[in-house]
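User: What would this chain look like folded?
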Amino acid sequence: MAVSLKAVIMAGGKGTRLRPITYSIPKPLVPIAGKPCIGYVLDSYYEAGIKDAIITAGYKFEALINGVIKFKHPDQNILFSVEREPVGTAGSIKLVSKFLDDTFIVGSGDTLADFNITNILKFHREKKSKLTIALTTVDDPSQFGIVEMEDNVVTKFLEKPTPDKAFSNLINAGLYIIEPEILDLIPEGKPYDFAKELFPKLLENGIRIHGYVGEGTWLDTGRPNDMIRANQLMTEKYGYTFSDPEVSGKLIVNSSLRHFKGSKLTGPTFIGEGVNSMEGTIIEGSAVYDGVQIGKNVTITDSILMDGVKVLDGAKIERSVIMKGTVIGQKCEIHESVLAPKLNLQSNSRVYNVSLSSEIVEEEN
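Assistant: Here's the prediction, encoded as structure tokens.
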């Protein structure tokens, strides 16, 4: 493997579909089974022996930089490229092209992906490819760029097809292995997109694009339900089972189980540090982060509770995301909703299918 092999991670997006969650944290730092989303991408590169990475940042770049520095491997070298104005996916790579003098990898920091990079690299080299796209299959391709292939060579692209136009459920997973000469085809000083502009240009110029169906987990975490699913998937993948009668399924538990006496935990569930709950409480298929305090007879199902949330007796939370420091009053019911940080929900409140935010949160830097 070339010593100079580098990875570029695109992490500058605003994450608009995840609002109000992304009003307070950049999408690449959204927690998934105890690790930021971008952490899985960095880990997959690191496991392939790639220790040098460039992260292209924009929205909430200071929070992103601080977050990455906290969890990166000690011997990973990270360079940040901050874009004041969006320049598109390919445009952001052009900005750092002077650092890319050999085969390099491009990935997305806000998509959950822990592909086996070593195998994709091996394929790229065997095919002597100029550009290899990692692919994955999805049930509904309407939100993605679909691909048609013959003998591992891409013959056709279509972005976000309507159901009648979808000729494939094989999609572009947003991870590319690229030879540096491809950079010459990206114009400078203007926004430029991989899927919409560069790839069609390569096909027009007769440059073969290879496709490789990646091995590993891939999930677009663009909506709150996807974020909940991502936490469940990675807990199922990396969790473990307990020989405790009150615990079943796969769990990752960073608190002592004695703080859950009389509670029932069902996987896939992630429990952070300093969490405790009282008797009669049921936690199922959820992620409960650091310092969360849960009262008696609470039910939490398929949900995410961020750091410092407090849930009082008798509350029910289902398919929802509760942001940091929010207090849920007694006997509240929350279904399929997102609650912004530091809210105080009065007892007996009923919240269904809404996103509660505040202007204070939106204006935070």
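Residues 359-365 have pLDDT under 50 and may be disordered. If you want, I can go into more detail on any region.
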